[in-house]
Amino acid sequence: MEGKHAGIAWDWPNPFVFETKVERQHIDDFQHTNNVVYLTWMAKTAWEHSKALGLDFASYARLNRGMVVRRHELDYLAASREGETVLVGTWITGNDGRIRLRRRFQMVNGNTGQTLLRGTTDFVCINVETGRATRMPPEFVTTYALTAHVEGDG
Is this structure's pTM higher than 0.90? Predict the structure, then answer.
């Protein structure tokens, strides 16, 4: 993705990038992308990255383990509007090897290069059948290895 999105000032090197377009249904009464849409794009990007790493829902079902959201933190910095391209970069910045995983996100207007949002999502590993928090299988520990080092994310 580095070549295609060269010139973007990413917060950390080598993000996994999901590209999307702002469509009419994403626009709210203020004539910009509704904040809930950004959250949806974060979830979509995390899942696309997981699949690219080789962990899809079939893997989750086979292992009877999955990563689910515990907490989101989003800082909205600028608006995007209909027709604009949004690049959603993500990095795995925390994995305790037991239960917790952290992702950082940066959304950039692909037309201007302006950062639109910075966000963090904390995940916990669960037993898919019971929904209870449980230790990560070895596949999660290795596959969800850190892709960026951020002080305090571990």
Answer: yes
